[in-house]
């Protein structure tokens, strides 16, 4: 795959250098005869008295100098600078995520600790038992327990490094920051490939990565991990030689880019279906429309047929098959969960609870620095004390204004602006769920699109609304840049004044300012030392959704099998055993634990959340055939099986 100078339109390949063997026979220079007189060397002063005045021959740089020059050019390349900027901005915007990454976690100590466990389990399972990855150490003895929620399976390489809760927190915090960086870089790359100028692409990247609504999702890494979506689209557009400015140009095709784009898309799917499933449908729609348009053009000659090429077709076929295979393999365990637990499917009533009204697009979460306090009354009035987290969908007033300007004045063509505006309306309507047109549109997808009924929170589809609005804004800023270039064409040098160039980046600062956060980064409770003495299968009390998420994180040191588990789905067997454990130790609770093979019960003296069973810390358990072992932070009952 040839590395482009930029992701905007560049020539397909440099012309090959012409060699003597490539020339026609009559153009090949004759080799001088061995006895033919040769010219005197310029260094020979007797043959050329003025030779000593000739300039020294230019010395070719050595290997080290060539390597240093190549490295220097790489470091100042646009894509290197964009990647470095994305990392710096991400570290600054998410601070203090990296201040104490071994002890703290963004947002709260509940769902993020669950997801830290997910990454750790994926790495552990891949290294020890890849075929058993879906049967995790939690929710014992349930099968396919790793599929009770979006898995973040694509992050498994991070789980191969380090063990224990500290390593799990460290990798989570690093990936948390990198997710924002990839979202910025991916949206930037897509806007540049479509033909945006650098300031416009930077606005698109900033809007996509740091829209205020994202901070309310800070506890859901699978939602924040959307950078693969835009990076995939950028690579596919690059591979197919397509841009908004110039359309399809076959001379710019890059099959390698196209194949890589499909692989990035497959990786995105492996992070979870919550945002991956709509992405798969978008890709399928783009593929169908592209095929219809291309075939129609060739059959009916609406335009001059342009070549596609077998290499590009092969790359699309192979990449599409890989993408589909990953999707199917990821879907199988989820269908198994539905077969075992039919009640796991989201009801339309639950979707309705999480569906935001249109005013949600103009309401910021409380974590937003600029608008959080100003919108507190609005959040309380519209959403009440509960349920506002999935309904505050503010993308940013600055980018709203730029997108509105982009509808009127833009570097994109009029029909492209109409399509982007249509994308805003459609994706925004779907993000409203049952609140849009009385739910008639959303219910059609819920009833007929495979997997759509598993999406509990339609507001997360605002990802697509954010992308379309960002591209409209990029078109407006690029048009201003084009106009500035035209006005300064007669200047020497023919480029805008530095003040005007800097002014083009002011919208980026405005978008980033609206996206500043003030989240909590709480300290995660330390793993109880008593857990090291569990052989498993085990039960840790108290057991509830929140405390169990911390317990799952603590279990990353050894991954002992345990009944505990907190996730997006709770099986009825889990509810039943938690109810029984409220009276532990008694005959019913002990018999239940023994019937499913539990050997140890750890009662925590200081749980993260929930109340310890009243008699659990004082009972000796002998009347139920158990032995008791005391520790500073808990009590272990051995069921003596």
Integer-rounded radius of gyration: 31 Å
Major sheet: arrangement of strands: 3-4-6-5
Q: Helical region count? A: 23
Question: Strand share of the residues?
Answer: under 5%
Q: Structural class, judged by helices and strands?
A: mainly alpha
Q: Indicate the overall shape.
A: globular
Through-space gap between termini = 61 Å
Helix content: 40-55%
Q: How many strands appear in the DSSP assignment?
A: 6
Q: Low-confidence segments, ≥5 residues, pLDDT <50?
A: 1-42
Question: What is the chain-wise order of helices and strands?
Answer: HHHHHHHHHEEHHHHHHHHHHHEHHHEEE
Largest sheet: 4 strands, mixed
Mean pLDDT: 89
Would you mind describing this structure in some detail?
The protein has 641 residues and is mostly helical. Helix content is 49%, strand content 4%. The protein contains 23 helices and 6 strands. The strands form 2 sheets. Strands 3-4-6-5 form a 4-stranded mixed β-sheet, with no helix packed on it. It has a two-stranded antiparallel sheet with strand order 1-2. Strand 5 and strand 6 form a beta hairpin. Helix 2 crosses helix 5. The longest helix has 31 residues.
